[in-house]
Batch of 2 targets.
Target 1
Amino acid sequence: MLSRAVCGTSRQLAPVLGYLGSRQKHSLPDLPYDYGALEPHINAQIMQLHHSKHHAAYVNNLNVTEEKYQEALAKDVTAQIALQPALKFNGGGHINHSIFWTNLSPNGGGEPKGELLEAIKRDFGSFDKFKEKLTAASVGVQGSGWGWLGFNKERGHLQIAACPNQDPLQGTTGLIPLLGIDVWEHAYYLQYKNVRPDYLKAIWNVINWENVTERYMACKK
Amino acid sequence: RHQQAAGRQAAWLPVLGYLGSRQKHSLPDLPYDYGALEPHINAQIMQLHHSKHHAAYVNNLNVTEEKYQEALAKGDVTAQIALQPALKFNGGGHINHSIFWTNLSPNGGGEPKGELLEAIKRDFGSFDKFKEKLTAASVGVQGSGWGWLGFNKERGHLQIAACPNQDPLQGTTGLIPLLGIDVWEHAYYLQYKNVRPDYLKAIWNVINWENV
């Protein structure tokens, strides 16, 4: 049973200088629940492939890319630029999925409470309108990508955004990621086939509002 | 489903009807049964891919073209520009898949012959090197997209390219599409899961070199 505390996972993403002065590698965070825990909304086969194959590949390829980047740094600008797509893709994939696993929970669903709910009402009109907008943004992604609820620090308000492929929300838009919806076909196809809207309907049942609230409270500071 | 390949091209060219209105685009028939490409691409994938995914591009393309017609008639440039992504996405999806079904065949596989083979040897070194390059380009697409063997008319040579999402090869690069490999996850996931390279290995068994 994989049940590590949520807060710890973000530390795994920060490169840590080890005693030998070398970069610590990124590693695949444990899932905070069993592969089958989100059934019937997201099935075990999807969760297992998604976590142990797709996310794992992003982690491995990120480490390889960062090693190559380390070699090119201060020596070869062309090589660094050539590595940028792989860094964004695999780095973004690692960031996005690390957030995603914490955004979901077998005890999820329903609505948020307190300050987050008030902010949602203020910025979108109502929780239902917010749900509609994030669903539409996620369903409407053409190709692979993510729908996001983010926090705009500059303006001090919540914002919905969609990013293509594995482009990370904060790195490409400046918005702080609170809740992500993966709409790559691998996130739902085995269960929902081409009917992405059905996957969206289902995923609201497993949203971990405690986690989304934690992220919101953290970025308001 | 056993319609001649040649007739189907006409189905998606806009044709001015007697009333002077645009003819709608329509889903071309598959030239073979859904299960005909097994074991390389299974029947469930072919059925969903053709009757759901391609069909949706056709329907949405028709809707988008109608809206575009209205915007054009009014001279509403903003609306026209706002419709461009939907036109490229659904139009590209229709173009790409219409080519794709003809690029595959249950009697496919092996190598091309004659002039095409000579051109491949000239432009890539050997058939195997070409196969490696197109495979690498297709496997390497980050996200959804297509690998292509195209013809560069300006330079008179073959070229391999990759396009993101449903961006059509000719419309975005000028290359003439000869052979496309769909690497959207819906093209292989039900059978090959995350192992896109296995799908690529398998698809070479059903390439319709006559069509290419």
Note: Residues 44-72 of chain A form the longest helix (29 residues).
Target 2
Amino acid sequence: MAVSFPKCPSSSLPPLQTRNRAWSSPLSAPHQVGDSSKWALLEATKRCHLSVSSATNGGSAVAPVEPSKKVQDSGTKTTPTDHSTKVENGIRPTVFSSNEFQDLKTGPDNSGRESTVSITVVGASGDLAKKKIFPALFALYYEGFLPKHFTIFGYARSKMTDAELREMVSRTLNCRIDQRENCDAKMEEFLKRCFYHSGQYDSEAHFVELDKKLKQHEGSRISNRLYYLSIPPNIFLDVVKCTSLAASSENGWTRVIVEKPFGRDAESSAALTRGLKQYLHEDQIFRIDHYLGKELVENLSVLRFSNLVFEPLWSRQYIRNVQIIFSEDFGTEGRGGYFDSYGIIRDIMQNHLLQIVALFAMETPTSLEAEDIRNEKVKVLRSMKTLEIDDVVIGQYKSHTRGGVVYPGYTDDKTVPNDSLTPTFAAAALFINNARWDGVPFLMKAGKALHTKRAEIRVQFRHVPGNLYKKCFGTDLDRATNELVIRVQPDEAIYLKINNKIPGLGMRLDRSNLNLHYAARYSKEIPCAYERLLLDAIEGERRLFIRSDELDAAWALFTPLLKELEEKHIAPELYPYGSRGPVGAHYLAAKYNVRWGDLGAEH
Amino acid sequence: MTILRFYQRPSSLSIAFSSRHERSFSGSSELVTLTTRRNQCWRFSPLKSSNGSPLAGASWKDDGKEMPVPKVPDIGSQLAENTVSITVVGASGDLAKKKIFPALFALYYEGYLPQHFTVFGYARSKLTDEELRHTISTTLTCRVDKRENCSDKMEQFLQRCFYHSGQYGSEVDFCELDNKLKEKEDGKLANRLFYLSIPPNIFVDVVRGASRSASSPNGWTRFIVEKPFGRDSESSSELTRCLKMYLIEEQIFRIDHYLGKELVENLSVLRFANLVFEPLWSRNYIRNVQLIFSEDFGTEGRGGYFDHYGIIRDIMQNHLLQILALFAMETPVSLDGEDIRNEKVKVLRSMRVLKLDDVVVGQYKGHTKGGKSFPAYTDDPTVPKGSLTPTFAAASLFIDNARWDGVPFLMKAGKALHRRGAEIRVQFRHVPGNLYKRKFGTDLDKATNELVIRVQPNEAIYLKINNKVPGLSMRLDSSNLNLLYSERYPREIPDAYERLLLDAIEGERRLFIRSDELDAAWAIFSPLLRELEEKKVVPELYPYGSRGPVGAHYLAAKYNVRWGDLSDSS
């Protein structure tokens, strides 16, 4: 376990020490050097990291047996002494600036060669790369989570120099609010490790050039390569083909992060997977769903499995319904081209919300290991009833004028066809036909141009059977049930609505929240989902990435519905920009005796 | 404030009856509409009446913010109006001055008292009505959140306060009181409530005098009795026997003011009005329950009474045991007083008799801190030098029924400790087969869920849960799902005495202790108390202002428990 799950290196260590997953970076060095009481911590830290990087020592580009390799490696790691040497080397400023390549041989070498990670962002000039990927990489570097030696390459068609890329990247970097010191210096160091290579996405020759450049930076280290495909789906395969044929690592691992969309339906998704698998093994493919990297989605499993008080309630016996709600308060805003060919169901529901349902509803996995968790998720997805058109309501926003401001309709967007029927809103009722969840409606709702921006999970419990306080609740007992709300964004929070007595001489009941507001308790900035996912990909932690069979099962649920919507040209219910969405969602909920928790008088 | 207007109209008390009793004649249609309104919760009083008189049933109390304003019909001129006369016996005492009169005023101020009422003080000292009013007025305060009209209200209240001086054992003096009461009652249907704020040795004298000479001829007569209810099983049942010579069970209201505390009241609501707690409420999920009471001061020169009783009788056998019974009882058939007390008796009777091995007693000693010296218990001039009376006790109790078999219920009560507080802590078991085991160190029981109900100060409910520390690593942390009353309910929480007095006036017996309950409670503690005294068990000394004797930790350890209030993260 300690081995296959690098974040908790050793069971024998006290909790404080097992937590540390930071690379032994310059940032942490001052605490560690020369303090013998920290040896255990150092050891833990190192074992954690080395078990990851050394897993690649086998030399093959494919790493199907990584876990077992880690088992072997973690026991035989280096001693504290040589580790401290490494740390001290790490804090030498020169190491990172001019003398990057010399640094290579200064480290300890008794466990083999050093390893390095090269991260190539394919589509480096794109929006996602600028706004999310480079900043996330910098944040990881700043917090000391990247390995000591790493290289970042931007790859795109546009002609750019390294300096131009750096200039572009530097505009979007910022430092954590809570750790501003050295920010500029850090940024400078980070940018020095960023390079650019211009090339066509389908040219093997260009990738061969990239490979050469990468080798030059990697020196004689064991090279691990991560490709982040931040490009349109139609060129996924070209790039994958070129990278795997021309720019794979020769002695370390090569991994490819792919962003959604993963096809448009079961068939195209399967075709994409097939295509990818011509060049990659399953465990080289990291399908990212950035929702799974959100803090509270991560916390969902912790809540369920490390608290006694929730798991007994986690079934049809106590839970009346589950609601997964996503809303944005803006529309496509002139960027509807991509969206229009996918629609909200493919864009949000079939991936983000369904993934959350699977995590929420899965049985207890055997361990926290990625394969165990993904096995359980697949089981949930495969137990789900295929979605039918009767259980779905779709909507599209229309223009709306409020306070003198005119908000455009979806079809007013110039990038959207005027007669588009693409849903910008959808609500759906899903069912999991297994022993735990039979009959419990899982309601999903996702929409653009709504009145709030939010993502949350609401668990409504049944009413108390034979409630002694019945008379205090009015006629509908279901309106005063307990409710657990996990607000994923904004303002991360967990709260449990309970009934309690209003203080005073009467016996009036009230619903209050047992509350945990993250911002109040944890002043630290919550890391962006991309940071976590990039780090996981570097570390080979696959828990939060979507396996091929998961993806197939997810598409199987939605594809018949999506086809039907398109074949029958179902017209979406129009709703005003900035409204609470089409009322049809209420009727859908009513059909299953549910009330949306987010649209009540009180949330 | 609806209630206020309500009661200011004539015959308002009979309106209160009307919702439950056919004998009300008026306003019932109005009330029916009220009762069926949503979100109004009514309190129900038992249908039985104490002595054949009608009960003030189902009177409604509410903070009334959004209550509808009922049109009170013009009624009552043709019927006998009701009145309540509240006689505080021992009116010159401390409790009367500090708690009872202020509580009565608060009830009046908030409109909970019936339109016509009379308050009498009765004691031996010679006082005029004016003198009594003056004494009372110095302790009255208005609610922080409702200052308006306060002095008017106070004046009106004081006008209804009177004093009668008499001997506690003299029937003649009570006859005189009766005459005065009749005068004030003025032909109305008279209900009488006697609050015995006097030492226990004269309880029976007063009950005899009052019941024989000053009982209501046509309404109910009720007696509120304060602890101590005896010193052990025998003296308690003797007291009950004597009371019952003059009173029937329904007339006796044994007060335990802890039961009037807001969060103790809320305990049943939490359990029975939420789905999420009841499934966990058993030995399957609960590892132990801790009932903790601490005061941060000693006897401070007033140890005479205390020395005779000790902390076990003073706090544990009544307050803490009552809370335990409410906590652990099975779901009652209804919220009716008798149904709840039936369930409480069942719990108490299922409990194992306490043994000396399961108890730790302590006594505080002098302590100097920051140049200030705090006296020991035996430094108190009112306490005998060689006193062995415990000022601290910890005990582990067990309920041998299907729900609680094997779950330790730990109690702890002490004076002169490092802080003041009363709380209930429910420690849950650890997660079986915890996937996150490695994050918790070796002792899984140190990171279990815990539900804390803080009764005082700063009323709060919180549930400790494990969650992930935000960030890239997988660090777990214990956080609280929190409900802090002062934040959510900025209004002042009423004093326990207000609730209990009101309940007694309304005949709501849920929070008063029935004779069989009292017997069962003494049965658990009497053998231990006797043994402590016979064997002259020496209490473990602990410094004034400390966390109490370490013996309490060893007692907890014996049952694999850790006190939740003394860990760092409490």
Note: Chain A touches chain B through 81 residues (CB under 8 Å).
